[in-house]
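PROTEIN DESIGN WORKSHEET
SECTION A - STRUCTURE
LENGTH: 424
TOKENS:
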């Protein structure tokens, strides 16, 4: 599977098509991987292997730690969908071109850009792009977005790449189909439209915006496309929008004004609520689409602050502390041996060993507990979390490279349970 990425990638196109300055703002922030991304990569590799077997092509793949029965089942659904699509195209073209995890170049419209198509079927009449989405956090559509009216921009760019590369061979392509297969959400969505519509969109909409984005020009335009933007925590336009929304500066919604007219504008229109002690149904409808913007922005700012604090950056009014931990047994086997040596036998809370508090009571108090098991108890180091400086716990000094006073690093020591904006 190709693993390189273009500056203006297809997967980030919903951002740079709406907010042309986004790639330049994101550039200083590394595109870090995650467990979910690695899991998705493993799923795509498994799906690729299954597709190539179906097509009777050579392929090998090493198992990964993410391979599960669920992944096997979900990639079967994807493979079966692609196989059915191939068979459908074969009804009108005996030997269509079937591409699996191939590089697609759409630099004719987007400077120096390319992407990897999961599955692409090309025939004299039809171009079909199929994309596997293994994640289940966001429902993905193939068809036109309800707000912008555009089809899935990532798949549309892949279609442009395939058309640019193979239309000299298949000269009479008339339609384009885009399919999203998101098996873990039960989402299979296909949208078909004329090739002329794709080419017009590319020439009149994509090309000028891509050139502006490639130059790093234009203004920041916040919207729902900001969700995965790496620059989200430091974006001034998004901060202004979120703070305006959080402050309650929503325009008064009159009966003849549609909700969409008030919520789709890229900038928040300041106004006030109706003079009443409680919000009415219409006002709540007006603010509902804005709540995710506020929440996502707050989460991203907090994550940015905490990550930098763990690299030694100081934030006035806050500090890094060690989280609370519970005492643990050094070894259950050693505890059992020590108890049996003293004649104790009924020290289980089926199917587990009694916890330390219950064990203390079982042994008749702290003195006996410490005598028998004192040397078999330890308290692990707590996870690190960002808290207000009014917290009574001692602040931990961290070097700029993330080194702690004991010589270890902060890697893997963040307390996800305590790292909640509400807690600070």
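SECTION B - SEQUENCE
RESIDUE ASSIGNMENT:
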């Amino acid at each position: 599977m190709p693993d390189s990425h273009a500056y203006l990638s297809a997967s980030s196109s919903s951002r740079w098509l709406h907010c042309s300055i986004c790639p330049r703002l994101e550039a200083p922030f590394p595109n870090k991987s995650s467990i979910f991304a690695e899991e998705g990569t493993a799923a795509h590799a498994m799906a690729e292997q299954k597709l190539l077997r179906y097509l009777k092509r050579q392929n090998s793949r090493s198992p990964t730690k993410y391979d599960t029965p669920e992944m096997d089942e979900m990639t079967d659904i994807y493979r079966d969908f692609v196989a059915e699509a191939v068979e459908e195209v074969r009804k009108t073209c005996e030997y269509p071109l079937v591409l699996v995890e191939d590089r697609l170049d759409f630099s004719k419209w987007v400077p120096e850009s390319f992407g990897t198509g999961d599955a692409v079927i090309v025939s004299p009449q039809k171009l079909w792009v199929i994309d596997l989405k293994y994640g289940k956090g966001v429902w993905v559509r193939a068809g036109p977005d309800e707000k912008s009216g555009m089809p899935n921009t990532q798949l549309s760019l892949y279609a442009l790449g395939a058309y640019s590369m193979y239309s000299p061979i298949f000269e009479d392509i008339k339609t384009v189909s885009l399919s999203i297969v998101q098996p873990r959400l039960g989402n299979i969505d296909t949208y078909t439209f004329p090739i002329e519509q794709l080419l017009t969109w590319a020439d009149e909409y994509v090309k000028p915006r891509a050139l502006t984005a490639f130059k790093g020009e234009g203004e920041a335009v916040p919207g729902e496309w900001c969700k995965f933007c790496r620059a989200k925590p430091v974006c001034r336009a998004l901060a202004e929008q979120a703070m305006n929304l959080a402050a309650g500066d929503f325009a008064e919604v009159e009966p003849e004004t549609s909700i969409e007219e008030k919520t789709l504008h890229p900038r928040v229109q300041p106004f006030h609520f109706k003079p009443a002690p409680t919000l009415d149904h219409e006002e709540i409808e007006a603010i509902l689409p804005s709540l995710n913007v506020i929440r996502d922005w707050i989460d991203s700012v907090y994550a940015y602050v905490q990550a930098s604090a763990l690299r030694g950056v100081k934030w006035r009014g806050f500090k890094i502390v060690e989280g609370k931990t519970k005492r643990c047994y050094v070894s259950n086997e050693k505890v059992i041996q020590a108890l049996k040596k003293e004649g104790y036998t009924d020290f289980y809370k089926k199917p587990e060993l009694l916890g330390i508090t219950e064990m203390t009571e079982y042994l008749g108090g702290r003195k006996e507990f410490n005598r028998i098991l004192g040397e078999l108890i330890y308290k692990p180091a707590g996870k690190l979390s960002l808290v207000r400086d009014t917290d009574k716990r001692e602040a931990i000094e961290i070097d700029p490279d993330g080194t702690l006073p004991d010589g270890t690093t902060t890697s893997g020591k963040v307390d996800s349970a305590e790292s909640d904006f509400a807690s600070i």
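SECTION C - NOTES
The first strand starts at residue 97 and ends at 105.
The chain has twelve helices and eleven strands.
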